[in-house]
Amino acid sequence: AILFFSSGVHSSGPNPVKAIKSRMSGSGLMIFSISLGMDRNQDIMDAIADIGNGKSIGVKEISQVECIPNVLADLMSQGRED
Fold it and tell me: Which of the four, 32, 53, 57, 69, has the lowest number of CB atoms within 10 Å?
């Protein structure tokens, strides 16, 4: 599993969604994208998680950061039940 923390705002370089799509082909990895801040691009982070067979978590406020480990643990346990 990959934990990808970002605002999701694309500022330079290749398109991040296309880059993930080309590199994830045949991979068994899961990407959990955690988008941070009020000015985040949730659509990009959702697309990255979707391509990576993972989940996307949006964090608007710093007080929400402490719930991330619990959310990830829940998501990982759900993945083992499938």
Answer: 69
Residue 10 near residue 16 (C-beta atoms within 8 A): yes
Q: Which of 20, 22, 40 is nearest to 30 (CA)?
A: 20
Look at residue 10 and give its three-state secondary structure. coil
Looking up tokens 């759900």 gives: 78
For residue range 9-27, list pLDDT tens digits in order.
998 999 999 988 888 877 8
CB 56 within 8 A of CB 33: yes
| Amino acid making up residue 71 | V
